[in-house]
Amino acid sequence: MRVHDECNGSDVFGSDICTCRPYLLHGIEECVRAAQAGGAGVIVYNRKEGRALGEVTKFMVYNARKRQAGGDSAQNYFKRTRQIAGVEDMRFQELMPDPLLWLGVRKIDRFISMSDMKYDAVVGAGIEIVTRVDIPEELIPADAKVEIDAKMYAGYYAGDKQVKSWEELNQTVGRKAADDEAAAAAAAAKAAARAAIAGGKNGGREKGLHLSFDHEHDPADAPCLPCEE
Ligand SMILES: [Zn+2]
Questions:
Q1: Is residue 227 within 8 Å of 210, Cβ to Cβ?
Q2: Which of 17, 122, 191, 201 has the most CB atoms in a 10 Å sphere around its CB?
Q3: Which residues, in sequence order, are bridge partners of residue 132?
Q4: For residues 209 and 162, which has the higher predicted lDDT (pLDDT)?
């Protein structure tokens, strides 16, 4: 069972700054596992984008986090949200269990979430939770360690994970905005080179110019399936 709060950037576009998409996928996998074992799995998807602060506010927080002196860090994770939004979280979970009650859920064997707010709301609605399941370490994107370490320090349910001290939080830093800009510039240069090839002679199939896949073709060869040139 997972009650998932919407995150367009990660759920839809695969951003690695947070764990929303891997958490959702982990929840779906657990649901399938439960169904295969003869039980039932439930995913409830709530439209509470960016901790209910909305997408614009969320991206303003991301921007502040990535561009602050020293870069994105677990120590400043909640502070930056407070500075931009005035609060750390706008979500209200008291009505969240209603769909579960409507579905007739009385007991949850595996509750896929680290959130105490969600846990307290579900238990408070009279639904038993047997086991709390946090996200497996291997599913956490490197850049999202900032979020996870900050949340665990703040008291979120951490399972068997090692909770860092305040001093250690300083060591958890995200990818720099400058790195993203360099990667975007490299991707743009590559795209421009590909466009130049596509517009070139021999139908764009010039020897040695297949930059994307690091291999060469003779223009006399048949079209290459991997690089479609
Ligand atoms: Zn997210």
A1: yes
A2: 122
A3: 111
A4: 162
Residue 202's pLDDT band (cuts 50, 70, 90): very low
Give me ligand 1 centre to Cα 54, in Å: 12
10 CA to centre of ligand 1 in angstroms: 5
Whether residue 89 lies in the annotated active site: yes
8 A C-beta contact, residue 30 and residue 133: yes
What is the Cα–Cα distance from 10 to 4, expressed in whole angstroms?
12
* DSSP 8-state assignment for residue 73: B
Catalytic one among 16, 89, 109, 116?
89
167, amino acid identity: E
pTM (two decimals): 0.75
- Is residue 8 within 8 A of residue 54, CB to CB? The reply is no
In the chain, pLDDT over 70 holds for what percent of residues?
A: 86
Å from CA of 156 to ligand 1 middle: 16
- Beta bridge pairs of residue 73: 173
Query: Of the listed 2, 51, 65, 91, which one is catalytic?
Result: 91
